[in-house]
Design a protein that fits this description.
The chain has helices spanning about 5-15, 20-40, 75, and strands at about 85, 85-90. With about 100 residues, it is mostly helical. The protein has a domain at about 5-45: Glu-tRNAGln amidotransferase C subunit, N-terminal domain (Histone, subunit A, Orthogonal Bundle). A hairpin with a 2-residue loop joins strand 1 (about 85) and strand 2 (about 85-90). Helix 1 (about 5-15) packs across helix 2 (about 20-40). The termini are far apart. Belongs to the GatC family.
Length: about 100
């Protein structure tokens, strides 16, 4: 597949990029080379290969979500600068 300078100009316009003429020509060549290389993937035999979003199998490594005892309120508020009614007291954010 060949990328033209007009294609580069169009993409640069969408991305709000200002490119010089030499940059446009250089990018057209580079992008064409990238697409040509990507087209080589069509030569691979993928018969019997399942589509996947990741090359390695993914497993959830999170532990089960189970209720456990936590810190008592008094201990949690021990180092709080200010406390009111068993809660942290912080400056008001909204008026």
């Amino acid at each position: 597949m060949s990328i033209t300078v007009q294609d580069v100009e169009h993409v640069a316009n969408l991305a709000r990029l200002e490119l010089t003429e030499s940059e446009k020509e250089r990018l057209a060549g580079q992008l064409s080379a990238i697409l040509d290389y990507a087209e080589k993937l069509n030569e691979l035999n993928t018969e019997g290969v399942e589509p996947t979003s990741h090359v390695l199998p993914l497993h959830n490594v999170m532990r089960e979500d189970e209720a456990r005892p936590s810190l008592p309120v008094e201990k949690a508020l021990l180092n709080a600068p200010e406390e009111e009614d068993g809660q942290f007291k912080v400056p008001a954010v909204l008026e």
